[in-house]
Amino acid sequence: MDWDNLGFKLITTDYIYSMKCTEEGNFEQGRLSLHANIELSPAAAILNYAQGVFEGTKAHKKEDGGLLLFRPDQNGVRMKIGAERMCMPSPSVDQFVDAVKQTAIANRSWVPPSGKGSLYIRPLLMGTGGALGVAPAPDYTFLVYASPVANYFKEGLAPLNIYVEDEFHRASPGGTGHVKAISNYSPCLKALTRAKKRGFSDVLFLDSIHKKYVEELSTCNIFIVKGNQISTPATNGTILPGVTRSSIIEIARDYDYKIEEREIEVDEVMEAEEVFCTGTAVGVASVGSITYHTKR
Ligand code: COI
């Protein structure tokens, strides 16, 4: 492996973990197997009705070769909440963490050396049984795969250039923006590809009612800094409660920053002293510029 040139591209590792679940919600004993494509009914609920949620977490290699996982229990809790919203049974938090651990250990030769990146671990829960009408699937599959990664953005650690999207929205009240539904991501693609073609790193979505409060980017949460005060949009139903987001809030409180989770108007972001983004894939990324209409 060329550990110095990892980006955020899929590199297939040796093992995946999978566990099947019946309609009654009983998960059978999960197992590791060699990474391979999976077989699905053309009528699978995940393919036809996007009944699925996913997670992202990372394993890091310590200098002594040991592995560190970053708060995987919080991803397990979030998957449970997401599964409930999508009418799916979900593994217990213990089953989830055990699956993540087994996947990390089985693929440990793919975890980059300390300081070169991490093993991105992707737990996926989906309705794999066929359902012609709109209804919860008759059976489900939980699987976990992994890929070694380094920086998410091609900019590396350079500050991001963000475009404020005011035509398309990521989420709306009562929808699924607060959970990691698979269906939350492809609707971002139109705005994202358009912005990327214009040289931006990512898009910042606005709320769909007033069209003036910032929500999050296609890949991560946002924070603004003014003096000793750090603010981030409140998790009010349209914002994903990021694990990195909550870690940053806890750390900032320990360092005596004043933290506010609230509505933030886009104009306030444009005037902030500093802006940064957080997410599992993204880590903590600083923002160099924000473009909103003709303002920058
Ligand atoms: C993550 O940060 O793990 C995500 O799921 C964001 C993304 C790459 C879709």
Blueprint (SSEs and pairs):
Blueprint: E1 15-21, E2 31-34, H1 45-49, E3 52-54, E4 57-61, E5 67-69, H2 72-85, H3 93-106, E6 118-127, E7 140-149, E8 160-165, H4 189-197, E9 202-206, E10 214-217, E11 221-226, E12 229-233, H5 243-254, E13 258-262, H6 266-270, E14 274-279, E15 283-291
Parallel strand pairs: 8-9, 8-15, 12-13
Antiparallel strand pairs: 1-2, 1-7, 3-6, 4-5, 4-6, 6-7, 9-10, 11-12, 11-14, 14-15
Helix pairs in contact: 2-3
Bound molecules: 2-OXO-4-methylpentanoic acid.
2-OXO-4-methylpentanoic acid (COI) binds next to loops.
Task: Provide a descriptive summary of the structure in words.
With 296 residues, the protein is of the alpha+beta class. It has helices at residues 45-49, 72-85, 93-106, 189-197, 243-254, 266-270; strands at residues 15-21, 31-34, 52-54, 57-61, 67-69, 118-127, 140-149, 160-165, 202-206, 214-217, 221-226, 229-233, 258-262, 274-279, 283-291. It has two domains: 15-150, D-amino Acid Aminotransferase, Chain A, domain 1 (2-Layer Sandwich), CATH 3.30.470; 160-291, D-amino Acid Aminotransferase, subunit A, domain 2 (D-amino Acid Aminotransferase, Chain A, domain 2, Alpha-Beta Barrel). The strands form two sheets. It has an eight-stranded mixed beta sheet. Strands 1, 2, 3, 4, 5, 6 and 7 form a seven-stranded antiparallel beta sheet that branches. The longest helix is centred in the first third of the chain and has 14 residues, at 72-85. The structure holds 2-OXO-4-methylpentanoic acid (COI). Residues 56, 185, 219, 279-281 line the site of 2-OXO-4-methylpentanoic acid. 2-OXO-4-methylpentanoic acid binds next to loops. Its EC number is 2.6.1.42. This is Branched-chain-amino-acid aminotransferase. It is an enzyme of class 2 (transferase).
